[in-house]
Write a structure and sequence with these properties.
Distance between the termini: 18 Å
Strand order of the largest sheet: 1-3-2
Low-confidence stretches: none
Number of strands: 3
Strand content: 15-25%
Structural class: alpha+beta
Mean pLDDT: 80
Order of helices and strands: EHEE
Largest sheet: 3 strands, antiparallel
Length: about 70
């Protein structure tokens, strides 16, 4: 299994078909507001482009009230 940090990622076409993407909107929103407040003072978190524009090739395979799991087709 390979884990990739998507911070600041713009193009999503580099993510191969068959990949799973787990998103946690609440955690991302927290990072946007709080990054740089203490441990990483001065740094900001850049939300991945796809959080606002989910590619049509990503299909929801599971979700609950806090997270969504996509599979890239």
């Amino acid at each position: 299994m390979e884990i990739i940090d998507f911070e600041g990622m713009q193009p999503t076409n580099d993510i191969p078909a068959g990949s799973y993407i787990l998103t946690h909107p609440g955690a991302i929103n927290w990072l946007e507001v709080n990054a740089g407040m203490w441990l990483s003072k001065g740094n900001v978190y850049v939300k991945p482009y796809f959080y606002e524009n989910i590619p049509p090739s990503w299909k929801v395979v599971w979700q609950n009230s806090r997270a969504i799991l996509y599979k890239v087709e």
